[in-house]
From TrEMBL:
It comes from the Eukaryota. Keywords: LIM domain, Metal-binding, Nucleus, Repeat, Zinc, Zinc-finger. This is Four and a half LIM domains protein 5 isoform X1. Residues 1-30 are annotated as: Disordered. The gene is FHL5. The lineage of its organism: Eukaryota, Metazoa, Chordata, Craniata, Vertebrata. The keyword Zinc applies. It is found in: Nucleus.
Amino acid sequence: MINTDAEPRVNIPKGSSISEQEGTWEPSSSTHLFSRINSKMTTPTECLHCMKSIYGKEYTVKNDEAYCIPCYDLLFSSVCEKCKGTIGYYSRDFSYKDLHWHDDCFKCAKCNRSLMEKPFAVKDKVLLCTACYTNECSSKCFQCKKIIMPGSRKIEFRGNEWHASCFICQSCGQPMGKNPVMTKDSKNYCVPCFEKHFAPYCKSCKKVVSVGGMTFHNKPWHKDCFLCSRCKKKLYGENFFSRDDDPFCQDCYADLYALKCDACNEPITALGNPQYVTFQERQWHSDCFKCGKCNVSLVGQGFLTHQDTILCRECGINPESEI
């Protein structure tokens, strides 16, 4: 875009004539100045800024006020984005979105070709022709490594970009578009192919575990499929036991496999009172291992037996009395 908001003018010195019809000034032989001027306009005599006479000198008008050329350059000229020099009154000013260039500076920063009357792009206030912009600034397809041309359809996924035609399942080759995508080893798969090749299968129902899964003994399970092998109670989030890789709730495991206390006949499990005493293939909870006569704890103490009863040493001296 070329700045043409002001036109050069000149005050008419004595000895010059004005043609009312054409609105032009024909100078006398003693001057070399020439300019178009509105013959009906009141001729200014001094620059609004420096207040110096502009009689017989070239000047310009901005906002209905007259300025000599040096003052106009000082007050209103733009700064070239490339060379940082002033774009003077006599220079062409190429502008784009509040950025300005000399005509000689209006070139591609990469190939240095003139951009006059050619399409161009601006990146970080730097001019580029469309070819250089495409090569330098366009993203490259993660799959084929070729440039994704500006304006073409592309897919963005996990920080990378693809041509729409390159964003395909690595197994079946079908375009995935906006469908759900599964990733493994930096490769993308549609959900059916991913489940077919990589997804774990629930040990119980033998179906794919995609969400809501858990692992037990290195085997995948749906949380809703992780049940007691006997009573089918849900075990996820609960205390449980295992036997031969099968899970059991506490009650079923105790009923089927736990040792029974010789005193209270309750199961001895790790969840209740895990410490127990064993003697001659008999077991007791630590809290239940007491003298059968005086009820004193025998844990860590010597003891005697009388028939099926365990006794402390004192009671064992006369076991027949009040047992």
